[in-house]
Design brief:
Radius of gyration: 18 Å
CATH superfamily of the largest domain: Response regulator
Order of helices and strands: EHEHEHEHEHHEEEEHEHHEEE
Strand content: 15-25%
Number of strands: 13
Distance between the termini: 27 Å
Shape: globular
Structural class: alpha/beta
Strand order of the largest sheet: 2-1-3-4-5
CATH class of the largest domain: Alpha Beta
Number of helices: 9
Oligomer: single chain
Number of domains: 2
């Protein structure tokens, strides 16, 4: 699959916005379908199997945050929220509930295209080195299968959470600034609040740390960013 042939599902109850996005992305050679409500969106999701969902929060029969979680429980689909709800709480909820990006209305079509392209580039072909499994005691990160296991149990990470954890774990002991993480993981010149990184780190910690309030694997370096610290008893192995 080339990036331009990726499949995108647009979910918005406003027909003008829905059709505008559909026509615009179709000219970029994406395969695009659209839905006006949650029920239709889920039915299309099953048959169309999109790589990316552009999702409004306010739908007539569903809340976009819940729809995001439902879709990501079925596949590792990327989700870009596109909504008029631009408050700090709303954006925070969008990322906490699994969103990969968040764009507020009114929006610029070129900016939308940039965000879409950046998200889809995360599925680029990776090098042999990047494909190697990373093993840290009971934590195993498998980039080829895009899976993380802890004590042999599968850890349910979103696509963005996986990319963020994988990037941190590939550089154990190195302090990574928020700006670098955004550049490498989000893969575009993000102009919003860099605390978006903190939200995703918090979600990952809840899933892999014994005590997320006192993390041992992903450590905060105050005023700078984060570093991944391999367990002292078992430094990184590759398989």
């Amino acid at each position: 699959m080339t990036m331009a042939s990726a499949k995108i599902l647009v979910v918005d109850d406003d027909p003008a916005i829905r059709n505008l996005i559909l026509r615009f992305l179709s000219t970029k050679n994406y395969q695009v379908q659209s839905a006006q409500d949650g029920k239709t969106a889920l039915a299309l999701f099953e048959t169309f199997n999109p790589d990316l969902v552009i999702l409004d929060v306010n739908l007539p029969d569903a809340l976009g945050y819940n729809l995001c979680q439902e879709m990501q429980s079925r596949t590792d689909v990327f989700v870009l929220f596109l909504t008029s709800r631009g408050g700090a709480f709303d954006i925070d909820q969008g990322f906490k509930r699994g969103g990969d990006d968040y764009l507020t209305k009114p929006f610029d079509l070129q900016e939308l295209e940039n965000r879409v392209g950046a998200i889809l580039r995360r599925r680029r072909e990776v090098t042999v080195t990047e494909q190697q499994r990373l093993v840290f005691a009971q934590l195993v990160i498998d980039p080829e299968r895009r899976e993380v296991t802890l004590n042999e149990d599968l850890v349910p990470l979103t696509a963005l959470e996986f990319e963020l954890l994988h990037y941190l774990a590939r550089h154990p002991g190195r302090v990574l600034r928020r700006s670098e993480l955004i550049q490498e993981v989000w893969d575009y010149e993000y102009v919003g609040d860099q605390r978006v990184v903190d939200v995703h780190i918090g979600q990952i910690r809840k899933k892999i740390e014994l005590d997320s309030s006192q993390p041992s694997l992903i450590q905060t370096v105050r005023g700078v960013g984060y570093k991944f610290e391999a367990p002292a008893s078992h430094k990184n192995g590759r398989a």
